[in-house]
Amino acid sequence: MAPSAQSHSRSHSLLLVQKLLNLRDSASPLTLVLDTIEQSASPLLREFMSRAKISRAKTIFVSYATVKKPRDADVFIKARDKSLKALRAEIASHCPPPSATPAKTAPAQKALLIIDSLNPLASSTPQLLSSFLSSIIAPGTSLIAVYHTDVPLVLPRTVSEYEPHPLTILSHLATAIFRISSLSHAIEIKRAQNRSLPEPDFGLGEGKEGVLIGLRKDDAGPGIVLEMEMRRRSGRSVSEKFLLLANNPDAPPGPGSISLLSDHPLFKAPEGEGQGGHEADEIELMDATFNLGLTDKQRKDREGIVLPYFDAQTDVGFGEGGRILYDMGREDDFDEEEDEI
C-alpha cells in the first residue's frame, strides 16, 4: 500500500530537521535562532554542538554573553569589545581552510560556527551586519546565530527611520529560522485554543510590573518547541513544529531526540474526529454546563409531533401550495370590508 500524503509530509519534515541538526550537505549556511527570556536557545545550541562532535566537525563558539566555554566547543572566542575586523580575522584563523583537492578525495573538515547573541552587533553596527555575516561564512562552514527577540534594541542615530530593522535583514539573509518556545507555554496556548479562549501571554508580554516569572515545568516535562522555517533553493518555504528533548547538560554527551509536535499526547487530535462518531462529541461536551444533544426517546418524540397548519404545506393544485388555512374563533370579529379588500 502506498504511503499517504500525510505520512510522506511527516517523514519529509523529520528528515529535513535531522539534516539541519546534523549539518549534512551544507543544508543551511546561515541558521537564525530566535529565542526569548522565557525560553533560551541554549538547549538547541547544545544539540548542535553535540551532533557536530559526533560527526567530527570543528565547533567555534563566538561569545558575547556566555562566560564559560561550553563542553563540546573546540574554540571559544570572546567577541565583546572587539572590532569587526579583528573578530573576522580571529574567526578566519580557526576555520578550516577550503580544500584544494578534488571532491573525489578525502572530504574537507566541516566547521560549526556559533554566535550566542547578535544583539550587540545589531545595536552597534546595524549597517555592517549583513556584510560581516557574509564574510565569515565559508564553504563547509555552517553559521548558527542567536537573536533575542524581546531584548530592546537601541539603534545609533546614524540609522535612518526608513532603513529596515536588523531583525528584518537577518530574517531575509537566513536560509533556516528556528523560533524557540517553552513546551509548557505551548500547552497552555493549545488548551486556550481548544476552548475558544484568548491565548495567554507570558513573560514581558503580560505587561505586569515586578518579578519576571520564568519557565514553568508543571506537567509538560522536559523539552522545547521548535518552529522551523526552511528556505529551499527553489524559493519554496517549508514550515513545521517539532518537540526537542535535549540531553541533560550534566549527563554524558550525546544527541537528544526530536519528534513532531503533533505526536505529543497533549497535541494529538481526538481519535473520533472527522469520522462522524458520537464519542468525540461526548468528550467535547463533558466540560459544558448544558447539553444540546438529544436522547433516542427525545428524537422519536420529536419526529412524531404534527406541526400546526401541516395541511397547508400539501400541494392540492396548481399554485395553491403554501396557502394559509385559518378557522375563525368565537371571539374573532369578521369585517366584510377588509375581506373585500
Walkthrough of the structure:
The protein is of the alpha/beta class and 341 residues long. The protein has one domain (5-97, 106-263): 3-Layer(aba) Sandwich (Rossmann fold), CATH 3.40.50.300. The chain has helices spanning 5-21, 42-54, 84-94, 119-124, 129-136, 166-173, 183-194, 279-284, 296-303, 336-340, and strands at residues 30-35, 58-63, 75-78, 111-115, 141-148, 176-182, 224-231, 237-245, 257-260. Strands 3-2-4-5-1-6-7-8-9 form a nine-stranded mixed sheet, sandwiched between helices. A hairpin with a 5-residue loop joins strand 7 and strand 8 (237-245). It starts with a helix and ends with a helix. Mean pLDDT is 79; it is low at 272-278.
Average pLDDT number: 79
Number of helices: 10
The proportion of residues in beta strands is 15-25%
Helix/strand-derived category reads alpha/beta
Pfam families: Elong_Iki1 (PF10483)
InterPro entries: Elp5, P-loop_NTPase
Family: Belongs to the ELP5 family.
Subcellular location: Cytoplasm; Nucleus
Structure keywords:
single chain; 341 residues; alpha/beta; Rossmann fold; 9-stranded mixed β-sheet; 28% helix; elongated
In brief, what are we looking at here?
By secondary structure, the chain is an alpha/beta fold. It is 28% helix and 17% strand.
Topology, pairings included?
Blueprint: H1 5-21, E1 30-35, H2 42-54, E2 58-63, E3 75-78, H3 84-94, E4 111-115, H4 119-124, H5 129-136, E5 141-148, H6 166-173, E6 176-182, H7 183-194, E7 224-231, E8 237-245, E9 257-260, H8 279-284, H9 296-303, H10 336-340
Parallel strand pairs: 1-5, 1-6, 2-3, 2-4, 4-5
Antiparallel strand pairs: 6-7, 7-8, 8-9
